Amino acid sequence: MGTETTGATPPDGDAPRPAPPAGTAAGTAVTSRRKDRIDRLAELTARTDTSTGSGLWVEALRRLRANKTALIGLGVLAVFLVLAVIGPWIAPYSPTAQTWRGEVFPNRGIFVGPRSGNWLGLDHLGRDELSRMLVGARQTLLVGVVATLIGFTVGALIGGFSGAALALGGRAGRTVDTVVMRFTDMLLALPSLLLAVSVAAIMGQSLTTVMVAVGVVQIPVFARLLRGSMLAQANSDYVLAARALGVRRRRIVLAHVLPNSLGPVIVQSTLALATAIIEAAALSFLGLGNPDAAQPEWGVMLAQAQRFFDQAPMMAVYPALGIIITALGFTLLGEAMREALDPKLRS
Amino acid sequence: MTESESASASASGPEPASASVSGSGPASAAPVPPQGAPPAPLLTLSGLKVHFPLRRGVVFDRTVGHVRAVDGVSLSVPAGRTYGLVGESGCGKTTLGRAVLRLTDITAGSVVFDGTDLAKLPEGEMRRARRRLQMVFQDPLGSLNPRQNIESILAEGMAAHGIGAGRKERRERIRAILDRVGLPAGSLSRYPHEFSGGQRQRIGIARALVLEPDLLICDEPVSALDVSIQAQVLNLLEELQDAMGLTYLVIAHDLAVVRHISDVIGVMYLGSLVEEAPGDELYGTPRHPYTKALMSAVPVPDPKAEDRRERILLTGDLPSPADPPAGCRFHTRCPWKQPTRCADERPALRPAGGAGTGHRVACHWAEEIAAGTLRPTGDLAAPVLHRV
Amino acid sequence: MTTRLLTVEDLTVTFTARGRRDVTAVSGVSFDIGAGEVVGLVGESGCGKSVTSLALMGLLPRRGVRTGGRALLDGSTDLLALDDARIRDLRGTQLAMVFQDPLSSLNPVVPIGVQVTEILRRHRGLRGERARAEAAHLLDRVGIPDPARRLKEYPHQLSGGMRQRALIAMAVACAPRLLIADEPTTALDVTIQAQILELLRELVDQEGTALLMITHDLGVVAGLCDRVNVLYAGKVVEAAARRPLFAAPAHPYTHGLLASIPRLDAPRGQPLKPIRGSVNDTIAWAEGCAFAPRCDHFSPACLEGTPAQAPAPDAAVPGPRSHLVRCVHPVNTATAPDAARRDGQPRPGHPPHPPSEPPGAAPAASATKEKAE
């Protein structure tokens, strides 16, 4: 729909107005103007190789920088990351010490809200809520990142193997793909929480369990996604062209199919990070997480706070808000990356 | 397709055609005489069939039928000449082009290139053989990897075939070929999306030519380009043929493009060749009803010719290649359809119009139609006299 | 002068995306159509022909688009000034459109019959059995065999040609007075294209429908259109009746296009004379002729602002409907493509013009402009 008109056309300059009076203008002015115009045409037609050419990733990055959604997401994540790194050092008190144990009586419904010494108040055991939030950020991030990494790595290996087999493996490859994909379909069909609970049941109650459980849930998603993406790329014309050139299959998969398939998977991983944090929180909430409840983690904090929700709702709201904002940050970034990496939206 | 043809094909196959394709081919020596004695064939297809299985199944796929994309095509492409393959979408012409390069599996038949039957080559040797048979694709942007710059795109084939000792030598060759196809040398580090459609197609041509192939298969080389750009690419292809002695198999739906560039034209319908003749001969005396209809349907940018043009309007659509009609594939739409033979006997591609014309047609009634003793049964649209 | 069915005056469409330069897709296009007349808008991709048709149908988004000029139906109703409800009423009853891609123009999950009867119900108040009968009649009218069965089928069950016929049936359901066909045959095979063109011709001849034919194919234009407008970079560069245009193309662009198209009736090896560069190599109309960078007749005079539309050298009677050309150096009839073609030697005598795009020129320009697109 767009045109190649170079843009400077003012709307009023388009009417079929009288021809530019070549003969009426003063002679010298015309010649100098003419010269300018010839130079202008030369410049237009000879705008040579100043652009060095930028790859797809470079351009995606450039577009990401111009995208407000991406900047907000990045900002949120940056704050989160900084907190996760420096949290333990800036926390005003120890997150585990029950310093104000004597001021909180959960069975009598007496809690301590925000006050000058404890900005976010105390939890049900008389620990400083702010300190627990700050220190808990690291655990939460760790759970999300490790779980997603597990899902991404294993899922991408399975999906990549299956996709490569299907795309360029001929008849045998198709059989391999069918077997692998039916297996992941079964995984996909299981309710994710049930899967996670089963993993947790096998491995026992620990933080590792939560990470593995959440990661395993992500595996079939990543596998399916990468395989589908690879299949689409393998059917593209440039892969056909590479085959026609006589390029080896292994190189076609590694140099053509895989790099072009990774875009959606990377986007998915940012979105998966958000769900991983939420699911980890859910598992902790169900009591499958870290058995040492003293170690702060947002999901565990939320789980514990729900018992006192009637009397001290803010105790649950703080970790919940933390989880929601972080997940939102990842989601925003993921959406922006999806847009930036979409080749259809280029140019 | 017939016995005699496959026999002649295998007889002429082993003849070394390499003499005429290395450097000074006959094409560069003189204007190509379309009627002259054709040089030895560089590529000979006989009885080529490509059937795609139709799969369906819940857990494991079963084959429930076949799409007969190419169903018994025999033709030969003379060295240094251009063979144009024309047909509408779904006729199997693209599949045929890919089958020659074994980019799709060949079901039956042989593809003899310079004495070697490509259909029987093991995969590894076929990969190496592709250096001499290259392809230009329809979609100039889609056939270039968006993540590769031009140098990487052009160097890839050389790396695969071990051409050029090092990066420097390869770059020299790339520069030379870019210059040849009319692209600035500064394009090396740029990416496909930074070029216009015509330039992208030049990149595609350069990618094929940098391997110094003998045969170039051009699949719809200009149909994705703007009208004013098509001529640039067509001219470039002709120049390159003259300069490098290339042999072309041009596949296109646009009869005018094929006629412009081809020495010999083959017309495909539903997986088989219905007519084959030198360009002028085919245009002058089309013998197959489908060819007649096809030619009459091509609009000419000239009102005088348009107003004179007799249109043969075909009824209905292309039947499904998964379930082609018995007998002559065209009989369901043919205005000259006869009660006998057409519906139950598949016509073979046989010589027509006298020896020396190189005209072959697959129609039982070609002679009768040419003589005018058979009248079309359907109603032909008379020349439409335009209101002026 | 009698009132024409549709008079487009100075149509201008500018896309104004935030944070980007404004792009003028159509700038000052004027033409008119009478009842039963076929007018062609010809040009390559990005010349503004499709935008013109969308503007006339009121199908451009309101946001980010600035429209100027007038499009008068019957000399009174300005299509560009109507609000959404009014133009929706006109669409279907007075105006109808056929698009290039028949599959995406039809709703994939609704049977053809429902889509046709929906229009009959909305615009003609037909219901139930009467609507179904009329729908079957319409499909029959556009040459779809066994219409009663086809009405129950879904778009994907029809072939490309049949879909386009169904779309045309829907377009003519309310006997519109103007049919706009935007590349109606580009997605179709040539034998199917012939069928569809024949159908359109019949509609014009029998119903007196006016047809605005938008295409890139000069061959289609040569056989179908009464009057032809050639667009380049958003402006009409040449307008003429069919025969004078092809007999003596006056604008170097039209002339170049005709000389660069391979013709079926030309012998093998007839050289083609391509236009150099690509459609991206252009300059703004305000600065001069947008075609100047690709033009063989270029001179400094081409950069003295927008060239005015003037009678072509062969125009017998100067007037708004004679042969008009927007060029400082119109091509003389003596060098018309017929003459040029006959002079041409078969291969290998190549044309004197360098066929390639000027090295170094086009890539940069095109790259930057594609980004701006």
Outline the structure in words.
The complex is a heterotrimer of chains A (about 350), B (about 400) and C (about 375). Chain A is mostly helical and about 350 residues long. In chain A, about 70% of the residues lie in helices and about 0% in strands. Chain A has eleven helices and no strands. In chain B, the strands form two sheets. Chain B has an eight-stranded mixed beta sheet, sandwiched between helices. A four-stranded antiparallel beta sheet of chain B has the order 2-1-4-5. In chain B, a hairpin with a 2-residue loop joins β9 (about 265-270) and β10. In chain B, α7 (about 165-180) crosses α8 (about 195-210). Chain C is of the alpha/beta class and about 375 residues long. In chain C, α4 crosses α5 (about 130-140) and α5 (about 130-140) packs across α7 (about 160-170). The longest helix of chain C has 18 residues, at about 190-205. Mean pLDDT of chain C is about 85; it is low at about 335-373. Chains B and C meet through α8, α9, α10, α11 and α12 of B and α8, α9, α10, α11 and α13 of C.
Q: Would you summarize the structure shown here?
A:
The complex is a heterotrimer of chains A (347), B (388) and C (373). With 347 residues, chain A is an all-alpha fold.
